[in-house]
Fold:
Amino acid sequence: MVIGKKRGQITLFVIIALIIIGLAILFYLFYPKIKSFAGFSSENPSDILDRCIREDLEKAIEKVSLQGGSLNPEHYYLFNGSKLDYLCYSSEYYKTCVVQKPLLLREVEKELKKALDKKARQCVSELKEKYTKKGYSVKIENESFNLLIYPGKIILSFGDKLTLKKNEETKRYNKIDVIINNNLYELLDVATDIIKWETQLGDSESTYEMSKYRGIKVEKKKQEDGTTVYILTHRESGDKFQFASRSLAWPPGYGATLY
Structure:
């Protein structure tokens, strides 16, 4: 009798535990809908802008990164269907190249900002409309946006200050940021180092670069016209940056080695 009673208690505990787990799963799945039904919302301006612009930002980063840092390259080398901007170039044989973008990081930031300008303004308008429909008065000081590339991330900052008012309720946001994890900063650092060698010696050593920047894979592909294509890949994230350089080129048949 005692054994049967204990078994019954264990079975009851197991059933209760299963019910609790089931309820926890259901609550996790339907919590956002429950919050919405109850009139609460964790949605903030950064979330709204993130959903609006993230896809466009990711596409812009990929496009610019695979084209040597340019949205629409004018002086480029066509490689596997991609227009690779020349970051260092000499049209003459036997001469080292001249840097085409002395401030590479800032130039890439400008290109990304240019690519997102229209979408960013659209997203700010949608943000204002969304809160206005909820009964808020919306005030944004300086509606422009800025884009900066940092180690491991890229940050879009919208406006200087956002103020939302509704009846007696006032919400203030000093900064509205959209942050995306990306290793473009590190890749541009390697590209800048390679360009330095190209201007001084007319070439670079990929093995040295990979020993110096252990998280970056450096591929160097010599072309028949003296152009060198560089493909930089962040080993952990898979982020890429590729560009072209033409430095200390040799005429065809005068000792240039393709590899």
User: Anything to note?
Assistant: The chain has five helices and twelve strands. The CA atoms of residues 189 and 259 lie 24 Å apart. Residues 45-246 form one domain.
